[in-house]
Specification:
The strands form four sheets. A five-stranded parallel sheet has the order 2-1-3-4-5, sandwiched between helices. The protein is α/β, with parallel strands linked by helices and 459 residues long. The chain is elongated and about 95 Å long. The protein has 19 helices and 14 strands. About 3% of the residues have low confidence. The longest helix has 32 residues. This is DNA-binding transcriptional regulator NtrC. It comes from Geoalkalibacter halelectricus.
């Protein structure tokens, strides 16, 4: 990627001199004789312009270097800035570095000093970019984004999600906090025809009404105090792709009406603007609230509910997905191994039993946190019950029968019944859960006279 150098100085001779030297070294250079011209260019240009460095003079008539630096940091916070200053303004250069300037050059400076500073800045930017790419790659390896659906109840949800993914229909995902609503939304996007476009997510409950409106629709310069420039909203950022509205049940009535217009007409008006803009976005919304009750209570618009709920997905809590607990735990263990270089590679069977016995009020998010905690506290390569929170191991002890150990035959029968129930009597899956062959399971089912229709004592 090309890394250009911007130079801003009000002296034409210095601009020509610096441009000639840097172009001769193979750099792409663009010069500005006024900070106002520079700021206008940055404001109108794309935030993805391949710019690596700005050489900024400290003393200029239109706007001094300190004020220009403040504006540049707002427009392009990643842009490296080197101040150029005379001997009498070194204190100001130091102040500029406190405001975010990377370095400063004292005039007159030799060519060697200029080249050294420029190359050091661009090498630093390239290193930061490589680090960002590496973190992205590691994140992708740690979390490939595939849904883990061993349990029949969750597999049905995933199958429905895959059926609706290729369409442009709106999807409403319901479920308790931590059940994986955003993971499902991202999976739908990746399986859709919009997969090459952006997936943009926003938590509607995390922002005030005013800030949420500005974030969604954008604003024009002067729309409110502090709106120094035009700002795109995430609706425009998601154009051609998918917009995920998390916690849609917390959106105010006024914003509900504006969202309904986008869903119906495909257009919106930025804050402070008068003309509408058109946008092509696929909507996926999620909430942990019962929206039908919210509609009945008058807190959520009925027309918006039906627009969003073209396809409804109800995610089961983790306590109803017993067959998913162990594979999820192993998945998070692998994720932590990449994220923290953890030495933990396996989960002790007793720890697995504790995880399966727990009720998981925080759902999948809580399970991930527990595994992260366990990998930090575990000694060696095995995550044991000692590394789990006390409440998990305590629940296992409470669940144990007070009368003492069960007869071996009864304990065996209960485990088989439990495995069959969790897999909806899929014997192949139940055998895998129990760690036995399908043939052995068939023999045990016959031995204990088990059948799906027959009532069984609590396992």
């Amino acid at each position: 990627m090309e890394r250009r150098i911007y130079i801003c100085d009000d002296e034409a001779g210095i601009l020509r001199y610096l441009q000639k030297m840097l172009v001769a070294q193979g750099f792409g250079v663009e010069v500005f004789s006024s900070p106002l011209h520079l700021l206008r260019h940055l404001e109108e240009g794309s935030s993805e312009d391949a710019v690596g460095l700005l050489l900024l003079d400290m003393k200029m008539p239109d706007l001094d270097g300190i004020d220009t630096l403040r504006r540049v940091r707002q427009l392009r916070p990643q842009l490296l800035v080197v101040m150029m200053t005379g001997h009498g303004t070194i204190d100001s250069a130091v102040e500029a570095m406190k405001l975010g300037a990377y370095d400063y050059l004292t005039k007159p400076f030799p060519q060697e000093k200029l080249f050294a500073v420029v190359r050091h800045c661009l090498e630093r930017e390239q290193l930061l970019e490589e680090n960002r790419q590496l973190r992205s790659e590691l994140s992708s390896q740690a979390d490939p984004g595939t849904l883990i659906a061993e349990s029949p109840v969750f597999r049905k949800v995933v199958e429905l999600a895959m059926r609706v993914a290729p369409t442009d229909s709106s999807v409403l995902i319901l479920g308790e906090s931590g059940t994986g609503k955003e993971v499902v939304a991202r999976t739908i996007h990746r399986a859709s025809l919009r997969r090459d476009q952006r997936f943009v997510a926003i938590n509607c409950a995390a922002l005030t009404e005013t800030l949420l409106e500005s974030q969604l629709f954008g604003h024009v310069r002067g729309a409110f105090t502090g709106a120094a420039q035009n700002q795109k909203g995430i609706l425009e950022e998601a154009h051609g792709g998918t917009l995920f509205l998390d916690e849609i049940g917390d959106v105010s009535a006024a914003l509900q009406a504006k969202l309904l217009r986008v869903l119906q007409e495909g257009e919106f008006i930025p804050v402070g603007a008068t003309r509408p803009k058109r946008v092509d976005v696929r909507f996926i919304a999620a909430t942990n609230k019962d929206l039908e009750k919210e509609v009945a209570a008058g807190r959520f618009r009925e027309d918006l509910f039906y627009r969003l709920n073209v396809i409804g997905l109800s995610l089961p809590p983790l306590r109803e997905r017993g067959a998913d607990i162990e594979p999820l735990a192993r998945h998070f263990l692998g994720k932590m191994a990449v994220k923290t270089a953890s030495a933990v590679r396996r989960i002790d069977p007793e720890a697995i039993a504790a995880l399966r016995a727990y009720s998981w009020p925080g759902n999948v998010r809580e399970l991930e946190n527990v595994i992260e905690r366990g990998t930090i506290l575990a000694e060696g390569e095995v995550l044991t019950p000692d590394a789990l929170p006390l409440k998990l191991t305590r629940d296992v002890r409470v669940a144990a029968p007070e009368a003492g150990p069960l007869p071996l035959r009864e304990a065996e029968r209960r485990q088989i019944v439990l495995a069959l129930r969790e897999t909806a009597w899929n014997k192949t899956q139940a055998a895998n859960l129990l760690g036995i062959t399908r043939k052995t399971l068939d023999r045990k089912v016959k031995e204990f006279d088990l059948s799906p229709a027959a009532p069984h004592p609590h396992p």
